[in-house]
Amino acid sequence: MIGNLIQIANALSFSALLFIVASGFTLIFGLLRVVNLSHGSLYLVGGYVGMMVAVATGSFLLAFIASALVIAVMGYCLDRWLLNRVKDAELKQVLLTLGVAMVLNDLALVAWGGDTRTIPIPELLVGAIKIGNFFYPKYRMLVIIAGIAIFVVLWFVYNRTKLGALIRAGVDDREMVQAMGINIRRLFVFTFMLGSALAGMAGTLGGAFLTLYPGADAEILVFALAIVIIGGRGSLVGAAVGSLLVGFLANFGQVWVPELSYFIIFGPMALLLAFRPLGLFGKA
Amino acid sequence: MILTPAIRYTLIGVLVLFLLSVPHIFGDYPKTLATEILIYGLFAMSIDILAGFAGRTSLGHGAIFGTAGYVVAYYVATMNGDPWLAIVFGLLAAVLVSAIFGALAVRTSGVYFLLLTLALGMVVWGVAYRWTSVTGAENGLLGVARPQVLTDLDTYYYFVLGVVAVMALIVRRFVYSPFGQAMQGIKESDSRMRTLGYNVPLVLTIGFMVSGFFAGVAGILIVYLNNFVSPNSVALALSTQGLLMAILGGVGTLWGSFIGSAVIILLQNVVSFYTERWMTILGLLFVLTMLFAPEGLLGKGRALSRRWLKSQSSKS
Lengths: 284, 316
Hints:
Chain B: It is a multi-pass membrane protein. Chain A has eleven helices and two strands, in the order ααααββααααααα. Chain A has helices at residues 2-32, 39-57, 60-82, 90-112, 138-160, 162-172, 174-179, 184-207, 216-231, 236-256, 261-275; strands spanning 128-131, 134-137. A two-stranded antiparallel sheet of chain A has the order 1-2. In chain A, strand 1 (128-131) and strand 2 form a beta hairpin. By secondary structure, chain B is mostly helical.
C-alpha cells in the first residue's frame, strides 16, 4: 500500500513536470500553429543553464529564473530569425525546428559533455516530509506544487486577462483577431517566448530529479507530443489531463512492464487519435 | 527541363555505364558508400511516394525500414534461418507495420500525420531499445550473414544495383498507375475524391503499405550490407535523414531521392573526416533547405536555370 502511495506521488511529480513542458508546447502549437520540435532541446539547454547558475551562485531560485530568461531569449531568436521566414507553411516550420533541434542537441553535447549531470538542490529541500505515516522527498513535493502553481497562473492569464482573451481568440480564429486591428505579430512573439520560458524552467526543475543527459531532450519531446496529441491543440486543461495520463502511464508502465513502457503510452494515444483526430479537448 | 531527348539519353547511358563500372574503378570503401547511396536512395524514394504523391509527410518510415532489418537479423543470426527466406519474413513484417501505421495515421493530414507517424516510430524504437531478449537492446543483433552467393562485396553491389533499379522502375509504374493517380487526387483535394466515391482512407492505407514495402526492401539491403542491426536502425534520426534526402532531391521527383541520398552520404563522409559535428551540419542543412530551397536541389536548379534563360532571352 505504502509502495503504491509512493508510486502515485512519483507519478504526480512526473506529471507536474510534464505539464510545465507541455503547456508551453501547446501554447505555441495552439496560437502560432507551430509544432516546435526543438521544444525538448530548449528544455535540455534550459536545464544545463540552470545547472551552471546553480553551481556558480548556489541559489536554486536564481537558476530557475535564469533558465526561464535565457530560453525565452532563445525562443525569441528562433521565432524572429527562422520561423518568421517560413510563415504559414506548417510542414516547413516543423522540419525547420527539427533541424534546430539537431543543432542544439549536438552543440549541447559539445558544451556540457555526454555524462549524466544533476542540478544540486538547496539544503532546505533535501530530505523527506512525513505525511501521515509515509515519507516523501521534499523536492518532489516542490515540483508538484510548482506544476499546480503554473497551471493556476496560466489558467488565470488565459481566462481572466485581456492578453489571455487575445490568445484564446487567436487559437480559435487568427484572421478575425487581425481584422480587429490587434497586433498579432507582437502577441505571437510574446507567446513564443512564454512557451519557451516554460520549457526552460522545466529543464531546471527536471534537471534536479530526472538528471540531464544527451537524449533527454528527445524523451521529453515525445512525452510532450503525446500529451498535446491527447489533450488537443492549444488547450490548457487538455495539457493538464494529458500530463496526468501520460505521467501515470509512464510511471506505472515502467514499474510493471519495463520492456513495453513506450507501448503503454503510445498505444492508447494512437487509438484515441484514430477516433478523435483533434484530441480530447481540441477544436478544429 | 531544357534537356532534349538526345542529351537525356546520353546522360542516362553515361550514368548506367558509371554505375556498372563502380566495382572496377573504386576500392572497398567507396564501393560500400556507393551501395549505401543506392539503398538510402530507395529508402528516400519510399518516403517520397507518400510525401510527393499523396501529400502525406511521414516521420515514421525509419521504423518500418528498421523493423524489416530486425526481423531478418533475428531470423538469420538468432534462429540460424535461411537468409533468402528471411527476406520474405522481413518484407511481411514491413508491410504489416505499415498497415498498422497507415490504418492509424491516414485519417489525419499535414502536421498531425507527421506527429502521429513520428510517435508511432518512437514506439517501435522503444521496443527495439527495451526488449532486450529479442533485440539485444543497445548492442543490437550482430553477425547477420549475407546469402552465400552474395558474400563478395562486388557481387553484393551488383545485386543491390539490380534490386534498386527494378524497385525504382516499379515505384515509377506505381505512382503513374490509376491507383497512383487516385493518391495524387487525394493530395490535391481529398473531399473531391470522397465525392467521386473513392474510399480515401483505404487508398491511403494501401499507399502506405506499398511505400512501406519499399522501405522494407531498403532496410533488408542495409542489414545485409552492414551485417548487423541496432536501435539506430529504427531511430527518429533515420526517418529524418530519409525525409531530408527526399526533400533535397525534390519532393515528387522520385529520381531526386538518389541525388539527395548521394549528397547527404558523401557529405557525411567528407565532414566526418574533419569534424565530429555531423549532426550540427545535418541540422543546419535541414534549416537552410527549408529557408532557401524547400522545393529541393532539382527544383531550385530548374528555377535558377529558367531565370537565367529568361535573362538571356530578354537581353537578345
